[in-house]
Design brief:
Elements lengths: L2 H4 L7 H20 L7 H7 L5 H34 L11 H16 L5 H10 L4 H23 L5 H25 L2 H12 L9 H15 L6 H4 L3 H6 L4 H23 L5 H13 L3 H30 L8 H27 L1
C-alpha cells in the first residue's frame, strides 16, 4: 500500500459549493418574488422598467435581499470562527460582548437623539455618516467593547480562551444593566425604538450596502491570512505551537477581523441571533469538522437562511395576518432555524446510537 493510498481522501468541495449556491439562488428568487405587494417581478426585470411602481418595489427588495445575504453570511462565518477559536460549541461573536456593546452604543444614540443639544448633530450624521447616527453608535460600541475585552484578558494573564470568554460574558452583563437603565430613563417613543432595534431587521436597508460591505471587506482582509490555521487551532494551543502556528497573533487577527465584520452588520441590522449557532452546527453535523468545506458552507447557508427569514418577515404579516408591519427578522431566524436544527441534532444522535 502506498502512502497516498493509506491516507483518507478529503471529500470534494464542489458538491458543497453547488448545493449552497443553489440554496442561496432559490432564497434570492423567493425574496424578490414574494412580499406584502404582488408585483410582476420577472416581466419588470425583462423590460428594465425600474421607474414604475413595480420597479421601485423590486429595487427595494433587491437591496434588502443583498444586505440580508451579506449579514447572514457574516454571522454564520463569525459563529464558526469563534466556536473554533474558543473551542466552545456555544461561542459566537456575541459571546465577547459584541451584541451588548453594539446595542449599548445604539441605545445611547437613540437617547441623545431626543436631546436639543445633540439633535442637530444626529441629523448631520444621518446624512453623511456610515449608515446613520444609530448605526455609527452601534459600530463604535462594538469596537470599544472588543478592545476592552482584549485589555481585560491581557491584564488577567494573557489573551487565552478562558479569560476572553469570562471578560466577554462579564461585559455583556454590564452592558445589559446599562441598557436597562437607559430604557428606564428614556421616554416612551425612545423606549419603543430601543426595543425595536434590539429585535433586528432590514427595514431601513436603503443606502447601507456599500458602507457595510466595505467594513466587512476590511475585517475579512484582516482575518484572511490566519484562516488557514483554523483546523490546527481547533485542537489546543500546545499542539498549534508545536506545529509552528503563532497562536496569539493568529487568534488576535481572527477575533479582530471577525469583530469588525460582525460589528458592521450589527450596526445596520441590529443584534440578529441564532444564525451564528444554527448554521455552523448544522453544516458541521452534515459535513464533518473539516474547515475547507465548513467555511463556504457556513457562508452560503447563513446568507440563504437570513434572506429566507427576512422575506417571510416581510410577507407573512400582510398575506396572512392582515397586518401592515413586519415581523422582526430575529424572531423568524429562531422560528425557522431552531426546529430544523433540533430535528437534525436528534436524527444524528439516533444514528450514532444505532451505530454503537
Amino acid at each position: 500500500m502506498t502512502p497516498s493510498a493509506a491516507l483518507p481522501r478529503e471529500p470534494p468541495l464542489w458538491p458543497v459549493l453547488v448545493t449552497g449556491l443553489l440554496a442561496l439562488a432559490a432564497a434570492v428568487a423567493f425574496g424578490l418574488s414574494w412580499g406584502s405587494e404582488r408585483i410582476p417581478v420577472w416581466p419588470t426585470i425583462r423590460r428594465g422598467d425600474w421607474d414604475s411602481v413595480s420597479g421601485r418595489i423590486l429595487q427595494f427588495r433587491l437591496e434588502r435581499v443583498v444586505l440580508a445575504a451579506l449579514v447572514g453570511a457574516v454571522l454564520a462565518l463569525g459563529g464558526l470562527l469563534f466556536q473554533t477559536l474558543l473551542r466552545n460549541p456555544l461561542a459566537s461573536p456575541f459571546t465577547l460582548g459584541v451584541a451588548g456593546g453594539g446595542s449599548l452604543g445604539a441605545f445611547v444614540v437613540i437617547l441623545l437623539g431626543g436631546s436639543p443639544l445633540f439633535a442637530p448633530l444626529m441629523a448631520d450624521f444621518n446624512v453623511w455618516g456610515v449608515a446613520g447616527a444609530r448605526a455609527l453608535g452601534a459600530f463604535v460600541g462594538v469596537l470599544a467593547t472588543v478592545a476592552l475585552v482584549f485589555a481585560l484578558a491581557r491584564a488577567a494573564g494573557g489573551v487565552q480562551t478562558v479569560t476572553l470568554l469570562l471578560a466577554g460574558v462579564t461585559l455583556n452583563f454590564i452592558c445589559s444593566a446599562v441598557m436597562m437603565l437607559l430604557q428606564a430613563v428614556a421616554d416612551f417613543s425612545q423606549t419603543v425604538r430601543m426595543v425595536r432595534w434590539s429585535m433586528g431587521g432590514f427595514d431601513i436597508a436603503a443606502g447601507q450596502i456599500r458602507p457595510t460591505a466595505a467594513l466587512v471587506a476590511l475585517g475579512f482582509v484582516i482575518a484572511l491570512p490566519a484562516l488557514r490555521h483554523l483546523d490546527v487551532l481547533g485542537t489546543d494551543d500546545r499542539t498549534a505551537r508545536l506545529l509552528g502556528v503563532p497562536v496569539r497573533r493568529v487568534r488576535a487577527q481572527i477575533l479582530l477581523g471577525t469583530s469588525i465584520m460582525v460589528g458592521a452588520c450589527l450596526a445596520v441590522a441590529g443584534p440578529i441571533g441564532f444564525v451564528d449557532l444554527v448554521v455552523p452546527h448544522t453544516c458541521r453535523l452534515l459535513l464533518g469538522p473539516g474547515k475547507r468545506r465548513l467555511l463556504p458552507a457556513s457562508l452560503l447557508g447563513g446568507a440563504a437562511l437570513l434572506v429566507l427569514a427576512d422575506t417571510l418577515g416581510r410577507g407573512i404579516p400582510a398575506r396572512f395576518l392582515d397586518y401592515s408591519g413586519e415581523l422582526p427578522v430575529g424572531i423568524l431566524t429562531a422560528a425557522v432555524g431552531g426546529p430544523f436544527f433540533l430535528a437534525l441534532l436528534l436524527s444524528v444522535g439516533r444514528n450514532q446510537a444505532a451505530i454503537r
